[in-house]
Amino acid sequence: MSEHAPESVLKRKAGAGRAAAGDPAPTPARLFGQAFAKAAQEMLKLAVAVDDATETRVSAAEIPELLPDRALLAVIEGPGEGLGLAVLSAETLASLIEIQTTGRIGGADVAARRPTRTDAAMSARFLDRVLGTAETLLASDPALTWAGGFRYASFLEDPRPLALILEEPAYRVIALALRFGAEAARQGTLLIALPAAGRGAAPAPRGGTGPESAKDAAAARVWSDRIEAAVMGAGADLEAVLDRVRLPLAEVLALKPGAMLTLSKGVLSRLRVEGRGRRLIGYGRLGQCQGSYAVRLLVGIEEPETGAALPEPAEPGPAAGQA
């Protein structure tokens, strides 16, 4: 037996004792807390202390009960078209806005007001930084499959549409208790609700962490980000098509304002979403959002069960006597 063996055994036992009684394990919730503090320091030069970080499993119906008053509600989108929610309390939102506009944090109390789209626009990049940093910290953690790949998608002025947006049977809610500023006088929270059934990529193996591997991984991320920016920045025209009607040319020429056209049965519940060249992208339903007409997309391009199928696009050029 080597003369250094007893010392190695003692070191292992001491390390095991520290693991049992020392720092808590880096749970996904704690890593999200680290990501928030890191993003605040690096992006805004804002000191943030994380007092608590917890993870709970809830149903979609329970999420509205967790929302603080006057909180900013940001819809986040991830792998497999999964939708989640990021909720900045009024105190957290005020801290982010103040540090960007005045360069300092005000008192512990904040003015009572409803968040605006401007608030959302000023918070979106920071939220993406938090989510991206958490994803990096979770690179070798099994939680990456449900916590990775989410980014800011849109702003909700009212929590009522949450019942339509959050359709998963269960969600994991990360709750962070935060203190802001050098004096740490202001307290706020961040809630992140993500679909419990993960659809993201599997975590990377824990091996291969040497300098060359890290350099290759960094280069791959840069290349991936550039490709994503180029592709996602390209324009795409979409059309929502309720129905297509064939009429004799004489009837088309006789059309006047107020004329009635007969549409197929059930078109409101299964319109077509088409790209350039009438290429079928998917199906949707006609509805409303904040007083405007909107199309709610359905998953996939399979024809919905209700109603007759929409006619396929006709070949270019009308038939004789028709338009």
TrEMBL record:
Region (Disordered): 1-25
Subcellular locations according to the entry: Cell membrane
Ranges of compositional bias, category Low complexity: 16-25
UniProt keyword list: Cell membrane, Cell projection, Chemotaxis, Cilium, Flagellar rotation, Flagellum, Membrane
UniProt keyword Nucleus, yes or no: no
InterPro entries listed in its UniProt record: CheC-like_sf, FliN-like_C, SpoA-like_sf
Pfam family, one: FliMN_C
Topological category with respect to the lipid bilayer: Peripheral membrane protein
Regions of compositional bias (Basic and acidic residues) in chain numbering: 1-10
Residues annotated as domain Flagellar motor switch protein FliN-like C-terminal: 231-297
Biological role: FliM is one of three proteins (FliG, FliN, FliM) that forms the rotor-mounted switch complex (C ring), located at the base of the basal body. This complex interacts with the CheY and CheZ chemotaxis proteins, in addition to contacting components of the motor that determine the direction of flagellar rotation.
Protein name: FliM/FliN family flagellar motor C-terminal domain-containing protein
Upper taxonomic lineage: Bacteria, Pseudomonadati, Pseudomonadota, Alphaproteobacteria, Rhodobacterales
